[in-house]
Each structure stands twice: as structure tokens, then as C-alpha cells.
Amino acid sequence: MRGRPGAGGQAGERKLVTILFADLSGYTALSERLDPEEVYSFLRPGMLQLQEIVRSFGGSVPQIQGDGFMAVFGVPRAHEDDAERAVRAALACRDHVRELNVDRVGLAFPEVHAGVNSGEVMVGPSDEASGFTVVGDTVNTASRLADLARAGQIVVDEKTKSRTATAIRYGERQLRRAKGKAAPLPIYQVRGVAPVLAAAPSGAFVDREEFLGLLGRELELTEQEGRARGAARGRGEGAEAGGADQGPGQRAGSGRGCH
Question: Where does the chain have alpha helices with state H?
Fold first, then answer.
């Protein structure tokens, strides 16, 4: 899902963002097994649900293709916790697919694997539906991180990990080689959301207001995840009637990401 420079030759703007690449594992095998129209009909409702989950966390989805999509956190609206939002969105997408498959008979919906990377990009205008495109190594690296993740895994870079370390649990640091990268990439695999009590102060009632604020934030995000899944299910069920959103078989750009 590589993008292209902004239309009209207009100058871009440098921004700090978090990029999420979410792909479906086993998409190629599924495509070989089914007719293209069957693949489209099978994947479309679930893909629309996943995109809606990402949007509910404040992300935008400027690029889509058959086996996944790219989401941007920080454009057009930025939040202080964009990195955390991106990781939580990836977790919610993974868990949503697992819920879809609980009572499914026949073909299972492909599991999600994702890469999350934070850094600077150039944001330029585009004639795509999103109205913008993002360009830079941050985007390319996010795509490579997604490639390194196996089915059901979410992999992040060091910047994303450091910005979310109090909210998200991670595995040990690893060095992995990725296509097109001269040096190995330091990566961390997401293990899940950190327990709320991990943020509690060591002394009794020390910084009590700060701890209660963190607790309230955690409860808010938990409720947001529940609402996201509920809204995604409703939107996915009505997807075929609307037809206005882009489906898995439609590309928003040429290739898989931005160069």
C-alpha cells in the first residue's frame, strides 16, 4: 500500500505521527481458493468493521487494499496519546477478528498481524478520499514491522514502545532484519494492555489524584474499546446495503505504502 506524493505539486508539512499497518494473514491462500468475487464478499464486512474500530480510536485510514490497510494517528487531528491509541486499535482489531471466528462455521476470517511505528512524515495533499498522503521512512518501516509480525502478532518500534510503556505490556527487545533495511530493526511484540495497578504510586495515597486520573483514563479507554466493537459490528452488517465505503478489493493508492 505505498502512497504517492500530494497532488498539484503543493508543498507538504512535516508532522509527528504513528502509523499502523494491519494485514490479513493467509490472504494469498484464500485468494487462490476462492473466486475474486467470493473473496470480496467474504472479507468486505469484516474489513469495514476493522477500519471503523481504527477510526473510533482517532485514526484515519487513507489507504486500503485487499489484504489490509494503513492507518495514521496524528493526521488530520493530533492527540498526545496517538501512539497508545494506535497500539490499542491494533489490539482491538486482532481481538475483534478472534470474536468473529468464535461461532463461525466454514472458512475462518483471516487473523490480523500488524506493525506500529512512530516518527516524522511529510503530509501532503492528495486527490484520494482522505484528502492527504503521508510520505517517509516512518511509513515504510511500519510496513516492514507488519511483515515481521506473524498471525495474531503486533510489533512496534522503540519510539512507540517508550511512549506507551506504562499502558501496554511488551515482550523482550529483539533485533530483526527487514527487507530494504541496512541494519536490523529493534522491535517489541505487544503482549496486551498493562494492568491499571501498575501505575499506582509506591507510597499510600502519594500522588493520589494522579493515580485516580490514570485509573479514569484506563476505564475510559476500556469503555471506548467496547463501543468500538459494538459500532463496528453494526456498520459491518449494513455494509453491503451502503456500498459507499471502499472494500477490500479496491485500492486507494498504487502499491502498499508510501515511499
Answer: 27-33, 36-56, 82-100, 137-148, 158-164, 208-237, 239-242
